[in-house]
Design a protein that fits this description.
Length: 443
């Protein structure tokens, strides 16, 4: 009996328990490599590029087939440590990795989540900044920027105004990474406040800035996503836990309403990568003492898991021609919820639309052809870990080479300056503004 137990122990993967301390580059790499080796059937470790100082930007993929894209399996990502001195998210993602891989095959919910989702986790986008911090501080350290002294969360192309900041290696690596995967949902983890912030971070009148906010066409979904995370964090949901900080009702805020930000990553993800992203501020202190890390894990564990599940909201499917061939670069959007960079199918004809329960009209438009409109209803309670599946078989025949060779990418310019009235948020925002003026004049 004892011999059988010994053989069973030898067969099971063994990873040294991850302790609650700050892991510098060497320690982080050692942990990630051990996970990739011991859980090779559900993980894949790779680097998407290097920092200014040549440190790898590691990404661990967790999923049933971690090395390959599977049709119908949505791609999710977490990114942390964009600012090198904001450290809590970095450690939380390492513990999330540990929790996911050790729970697979033991916890039914986590097992199902891993089998139905491909989860990409980048614990540190700014490893040079993290290593540069010699004296941790709650409010600001010299490791906030990368080695070239650039704030990476001000370094992306901006859809509202020109961003002339020189693009950094870390930023370019992330931009290239976004083109290689069909990411549907993501979050970037920061510190210095306690709130879930959602796009837009920047804006124009067309997105509602006259009312001190900047709303996307998917504002209902973004508010739901932010609240999903905040409501499961006992301190974030209170909204007023950080001294000398703004009070955030329910622990969420529109990014622009908090403060305008040019060149932010969450706006870039949404506009140019058709990936819904929010920003999670996880600690009042940017670099808290190590002994507080277990508390942060306890506060955020449920939120981190529940947020991943939201990648299965809405509707997904493929677009085919009459012969059953998948069609890439086809626009698939909700009518009256168009994006300034239209959401399109990937090379396998796949599309993903994050939507709350309700009735919608889906507009499928092949370049050079009339749009196809289909009404569908997303039920209140859909199948666990699966969006509503809806494929489109279009009555098209003959060569469709123009779809295959066309370049659907949007230019890296301030798109909202060219099309100021495009946003679906325009009408309600201006309507409320004029109603407010009438109220003032006739009170």
């Amino acid at each position: 009996m004892d011999l059988a137990r010994l053989w069973l122990g030898l067969l099971l993967p063994v990873v040294t328990a991850l302790d609650f301390r700050y892991h510098h580059q060497e320690g982080m790499e050692a942990f990630l490599k051990s996970v990739a080796q011991d859980y090779s059937s559900i993980t894949h470790l790779h680097s998407i590029g290097k920092s200014v100082r040549g440190r790898n930007l590691w990404v661990l993929v967790v999923g049933k087939s971690p090395k390959e894209h599977r049709v119908g399996i949505p791609e999710f990502k977490y990114v942390a440590n964009m600012h090198g001195d904001e450290t809590v998210g970095r450690e939380l993602l390492l513990h999330l990795i540990d929790y996911l891989v050790t729970s697979h095959g033991k916890d039914a919910e986590i097992t199902h989540l891993i089998n139905s989702t491909r989860i990409h986790i980048m614990p540190s986008m700014n490893p040079d900044g993290f290593e540069a911090v010699k004296k941790p501080d709650c409010y600001y350290s010299n490791g906030r920027e990368n080695y070239n002294n650039y704030d990476l969360n001000r370094n992306f192309p901006d859809a509202f105004e020109n961003n002339n900041a020189s693009k950094q290696p870390e930023t370019l690596a992330v931009m290239k990474w976004l083109k290689t995967e069909t990411f549907v949902l993501s979050a970037n983890l920061h510190g210095g406040a306690l709130v879930a912030s959602y796009p837009f971070d920047n804006g124009v009148q067309a997105t509602g800035t006259l009312l001190s906010r900047s709303l996307t066409p998917d504002d209902d979904v973004f508010q739901h996503l932010a609240y999903t995370y905040a409501s499961r964090n006992p301190n974030m949901t209170k909204g007023d836990q950080c001294k000398n900080k703004r009070n955030f009702p329910n622990g969420i805020t529109n990014g622009y309403s908090w403060y305008p930000l040019q060149g932010g990553m969450q706006d870039y993800n949404y506009i140019w990568a058709q990936c819904f992203e929010i920003t999670l501020e996880l600690s009042c202190c940017k670099y808290p003492r190590e002994e507080k890390l277990p508390m942060f894990w306890d506060d955020n564990k449920a939120s981190l898991i529940e947020y991943i599940k939201q990648v299965h909201l809405g509707v997904k499917g493929q677009v085919f021609d009459q012969s059953g061939n998948p069609l890439p670069n086809v626009i698939v959007e909700v009518q009256d919820r168009e994006h300034i960079c239209p959401f399109r199918t990937n090379k396998l004809g796949e599309y993903y639309l994050l939507l709350l329960p309700g009735s919608y009209v889906i507009n499928v438009t092949v370049p050079g052809h009339d749009p196809y409109l289909t009404k569908l209803t997303i039920p209140q309670k859909s199948q666990t870990f699966s969006a509503l599946k809806k494929d489109f078989h279009l009555p098209l025949r003959g060569p469709l080479d123009s779809i295959l060779v066309s370049d659907p990418s949007c230019p890296m310019i301030p798109l909202y300056k060219l099309r100021p009235n495009h946003s679906a948020a325009t009408t309600p925002s201006l309507f409320v503004f004029f109603v407010a003026l009438l109220h003032i004049f006739f009170k």
